[in-house]
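Service request form, structural biology core

Requester: graduate student, group of Dr. S.
Request type: structure prediction, single chain
Budget code: on file
Notes: please return the result as structure tokens.

Sequence provided:
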Amino acid sequence: MKLNDFFKQIRIVLFEKTFDFSGRASRKEYWSFWLFTQLTSLILLIMSLRAKPLVIFFIIYILILLIPSMAVTVRRLHDVNKSALWLIGFGPFVLIAYMSIFLLSLISPGNQTSVQMDIFQIFLILTYVFGIVATALWYCFPIFMFLIQEGNQEENRFDSNK
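Core staff response, request fulfilled:
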């Protein structure tokens, strides 16, 4: 895939279909956006661990991407003729992952020694990683398989193939 096409898919998800939970999303559209969100989130997470005020920007960034991420995932499931109800079990894992980052923003360096702060940060990072791993495992059985398979060529109950 060309880099220009990669950014086109991201633009479609972020600006053209941000609140569109109907219709379909191709594998290219979904996985381009997924890669973009994972890379940018990782960069912001690393930066926020170095500069505490950036944690707020990380949280805002995640909240901004929440709706487009859900919308493109629902459309991707529609492409393989699956309902959005498959995502119900996904919520608690995301909540665990991102609440740990929120807790990082509440740490007051004046109240703890640097060693205690480092241990607490490591605990929260491990909680974040656990949330991501648990989410990945949830996708593997069976949502991940739905997201990687080719969409239905014929019309299905959600829309005609776009």
